[in-house]
Write a structure and sequence with these properties.
Layout lengths: L1 H22 L3 H14 L2 E8 L4 E11 L2 E8 L6 E5 L2 E5 L6 E4 L15 H5 L2 E11 L2 E10 L6 E7 L5 E7 L5 E12 L2 H6 L23 E3 L7 E10 L4 E9 L4 E8 L8 E5 L2 E8 L2 E7 L3 H9 L1 E3 H21 L1
Antiparallel strand pairs: 1-2, 1-11, 2-3, 3-4, 4-5, 5-6, 7-8, 8-9, 9-10, 10-11, 12-19, 13-14, 14-15, 15-18, 16-17, 17-18
Length: 336
C-alpha cells in the first residue's frame, strides 16, 4: 500500500512538473512545438468536425518514413472519401468523379487547423494569447487564442496536448464571439505502429499526377485596391462558363491561415443587385459596378468581404471616365 501511494505521489509530481514547465512557455513557443510535433510524430486522431447543421466524423493518420511525409485522411460516414499524401503527391478519392493526384505539399480537406502553418509568418498578422489550461479527449491541454491584429478576420482557439504537443481541439470564432466550427478529438495515439500502417501507402496504386499547365500571364482591366494586410495574391485565372458562354476572371488570396477569391464577370441581368450570404465560415458577397458583377467568396467575415468588393476598380472604366472628363472640359473651353 505504501509503495502504491509513493508511486501515485511520484506520478502526480511528474504531471505537475510538466504543467509547470508549460506554464512558463510563451504562446508562440507552444504553437511552434505544436507545428513541429504534428509534422514529425507518428500518430492518428479520430475527431469530429462540428458545424451549425452537421457533424462529420474523421480519421487522420500521419507519419514520416525515410524523411518522406505520409498522411491519410478518411471520412468515416457517407460515401467513401479519402485524401492520401505521399511526400509532395496528394491523391483524392471523391464520390462521383475519377480519383486523381496532384503535385502538392499540403492536403485540402477538414484537417485540424494550424497543423501545417508557418507560425513565424502568422506572428506578423496575429497575436497569440494563452488562455489557461483545460482538458480535451481526456488529456491536459494548454489553450491558445490566435487573434488577428487588425480585427478583419476570424480567430482560432486551439487546445494543445501538454504531453505530445498535438492539437486536440480547434474552435473557429467570429469577431462577436460566435463559434462557427469546432474540431474536437475523440481519441488519439502516438506510436511507431502508425508508421507501419502508413508504409503501405507506398505500395498501393494511385492515379498518376496530373500535369497542370502553368497559367499564362493575364492582364485584367480590374484590380483589387484593398485587402487586409498579409493577404497575398496568386496568379489571375480566366475561364469560360460553357452554359452561359460568359468569361469569368478570378484571383485567389491567402494569408497562410485563411483565404478568399475575387471573381469578376459581365453582368448577366440588369436586375442583378448586391447581396450577401454566409454559411458557417464561408461568406459570399456580390456587388455590381460598371456593368460587371463582382463576387468575393472565402473564409472571411462579411464586413471584410464587402470592403474588398467595394475596393475593386476597373482601369478601362477609369480611362473612359477620364477621357469623357477631358472632352467635357475642352467643350466648355470652346464655349467661352
Amino acid at each position: 500500500m505504501k509503495k502504491l501511494l509513493i508511486s501515485i505521489g511520484l506520478l502526480f509530481s511528474l504531471f505537475s512538473q510538466i504543467a509547470s514547465a508549460d506554464d512558463t512557455v510563451s504562446a508562440e513557443a507552444l504553437l511552434h512545438q505544436m507545428s513541429e510535433a504534428s509534422q514529425t510524430l507518428s500518430y492518428e486522431m479520430s475527431y469530429i468536425l462540428i458545424k451549425k447543421n452537421s457533424i462529420e466524423p474523421l480519421l487522420y493518420r500521419h507519419a514520416v518514413d525515410k524523411n518522406k511525409q505520409l498522411a491519410h485522411l478518411v471520412y468515416l460516414s457517407g460515401p467513401i472519401r479519402e485524401v492520401i499524401r505521399r511526400a509532395d503527391e496528394v491523391s483524392y478519392v471523391e464520390p462521383g468523379i475519377e480519383p486523381f493526384s496532384i503535385s502538392s505539399g499540403s492536403m485540402v480537406g477538414p484537417i485540424i487547423p494550424m497543423i501545417n502553418t508557418n507560425i513565424d509568418q502568422l506572428a506578423q498578422l496575429y497575436d497569440f494569447v494563452k488562455m489557461g489550461r483545460a482538458r480535451e479527449a481526456g488529456a491536459a491541454c494548454q489553450v491558445i487564442r490566435v487573434v488577428p491584429k487588425d480585427g478583419l478576420r476570424y480567430s482560432y482557439v486551439v487546445w494543445i496536448d501538454e504531453r505530445t504537443k498535438l492539437p486536440l481541439r480547434a474552435d473557429l470564432v467570429e469577431r462577436n464571439g460566435e463559434v462557427l466550427e469546432q474540431y474536437r478529438t475523440i481519441s488519439y495515439a502516438v506510436s511507431e505502429h502508425i508508421t507501419n500502417i502508413l508504409e503501405r501507402l507506398n505500395t498501393i496504386e494511385l492515379p498518376d499526377v496530373l500535369t497542370i499547365p502553368k497559367p499564362q500571364p493575364t492582364l485584367a482591366d480590374w484590380k483589387v485596391s484593398w485587402v487586409p494586410n498579409g493577404f497575398k495574391a496568386n496568379d489571375l485565372n480566366r475561364y469560360r462558363i460553357p452554359i452561359t458562354d460568359s468569361v469569368v476572371e478570378s484571383q485567389l488570396y491567402s494569408d497562410g491561415l485563411f483565404s478568399f477569391s475575387v471573381y469578376v464577370s459581365d453582368l448577366d441581368s440588369p436586375d442583378s443587385k448586391a447581396q450577401i450570404y454566409r454559411q458557417g465560415r464561408r461568406t459570399l458577397q456580390t456587388f455590381v459596378k460598371d456593368n460587371k458583377e463582382i463576387s468575393v467568396i472565402g473564409d472571411i467575415p462579411a464586413v471584410t468581404a464587402k470592403r474588398i468588393a467595394d475596393s475593386v476598380v476597373f482601369t478601362a472604366a477609369t480611362s473612359n471616365n477620364a477621357s469623357n472628363t477631358n472632352k467635357a472640359t475642352t467643350a466648355q473651353g470652346g464655349q467661352k
